[in-house]
Write a structure and sequence with these properties.
The protein is built from 2 helices and 4 strands, in the order E-E-H-H-E-E. The protein is an alpha+beta fold. Helix 1 packs antiparallel against helix 2. The longest helix is centred in the N-terminal third of the chain and has 18 residues. It is globular and about 40 Å long. This is Putative methionyl aminopeptidase. It comes from Lupinus albus.
Length: 101
């Protein structure tokens, strides 16, 4: 579910717990989110974020769902031009962009 407040969006998701390796999957997602958040700074690029998410998934022996993208969000725009892939093999046409302003 996504809300718009003054043109900015706030996305909310619900977690569905599966019976297979629940603790590993939740820990992998939490670790990947924390590491990706720390990489979101000037001087880094979208490929850096993609690489670290893939390394975290491999460390927890988890598979990433293909077709997942992270877009830069701005006021009135939820799917901006700057994109970070979660799996590099999904969309080879995404270009490398530097993170920052």
């Amino acid at each position: 579910m996504t809300y718009h407040i003054d043109g900015f969006t706030a996305a909310v998701a619900h977690t569905h717990v599966l019976r297979v390796r629940v603790a590993d999957v939740i820990a992998a997602v939490n670790t990947a989110a924390e590491v990706a958040l720390r990489l979101m700074r000037p001087g880094k690029n979208n490929k850096d974020v993609t690489d670290v998410i893939q390394k975290v998934a491999a460390a927890y022996d988890c598979k990433i769902v293909e077709g997942v993208l992270s877009h830069q969000m701005k006021q009135f725009v939820i799917d901006g031009n700057k994109v970070a892939l979660i799996i590099t093999s999904t969309f080879p046409y995404v270009i490398k962009l530097n993170l920052g302003r």
